[in-house]
Design goal:
Layout: E1 9-12, E2 20-25, H1 32-42, E3 52-57, E4 61-64, E5 70-73, H2 89-108, E6 116-121, H3 123-135, E7 141-145, H4 154-164, E8 171-177, H5 185-197, E9 202-207, H6 216-229
Parallel strand pairs: 2-3, 2-6, 6-7, 7-8, 8-9
Antiparallel strand pairs: 1-3, 4-5
């Protein structure tokens, strides 16, 4: 079997003892460093913690069909940017395996999966949903900012199977701008409703007038949610 490809990543280390991790996935065409710089520009003070490591991986360049096959740093391919078409499941599953190695690296470093959150912006949020709903339901939570899943997504089927098997599901935190003209607000809201129907606990926050972008109020809300799911551990 071919070795799992190692991704480049930008890491913001905790200022104190490392006891939890967040994996934050960028949108299509961006990089981990690009997203990290954007986050730093948007939220003051930074999305940094005393006990949580924040990891920003970079997707490898691959041909991207919505760009007529041009190379782009995307987590998976799409037939088009629409909820009404099949998913490109082969590329999604391959990347789930690659990103799973980052989760495993954290586990190997002593961070249990219930102390790990996976999330992302736009395509990164969709990727995080596939990871959390299908492959790693034992993580502490998943966040998706300005993101959506296709109507027939495999991620909608997996949570019910996990529940039938007696497994827990991660909590989902979503944010979306009402003026988003690339990933429509309705697409994000529909994704939240369908995942809630599968048994997931979901919260969906709308930001009036926000386009396909990050904002300080959104990032402050995300930071508070992360801390609620990954509080500092008390030493005995």
């Amino acid at each position: 079997m071919a070795a799992v490809r190692k991704l480049q990543k930008c890491v913001v280390s905790p200022t104190g003892k490392h006891s939890a991790s967040v994996i934050f996935l960028h949108g299509s065409g961006d990089t981990g460093q690009g997203l990290r710089a954007w986050v730093r520009d948007v939220i003051v003070p930074d999305l940094a913690f005393t006990h949580i490591k924040v990891i920003y991986p970079t997707a490898p360049a691959r041909p991207y069909t919505p760009m007529r096959g041009a190379l782009s740093t995307v987590w998976f391919d799409r037939h088009k940017i629409s909820r009404d078409c099949p998913e490109h499941l082969e590329s999604i599953d391959a990347m789930c395996s690659t990103l799973g190695s980052i989760i495993q690296d954290e586990v190997n470093a002593g961070i249990p999966k219930h102390r790990i959150i996976i999330g992302g912006f736009s395509m990164g949020g969709a990727m995080a949903l596939h990871l959390g709903c299908r492959y790693h339901p034992d993580v502490a939570g998943v966040f998706a900012l300005s993101s959506f899943l296709n109507k027939d997504s495999a991620a909608f089927k997996a949570p019910e199977e996990h529940l039938r098997s007696g497994h827990s599901l991660p909590e989902l935190f979503q944010c979306h701008g009402t003026n988003d003209d690339l990933v429509l607000h309705q697409w994000g809201e529909d994704t939240s409703v369908l995942l809630r129907k599968t048994g997931m606990t979901t919260t969906f926050h709308s930001f009036s007038g926000l386009y396909h972008q990050l904002s300080q109020p959104e990032m402050e809300l995300l930071k508070s949610w992360i801390l609620s799911k990954l509080p500092p551990t008390t030493s005995t």
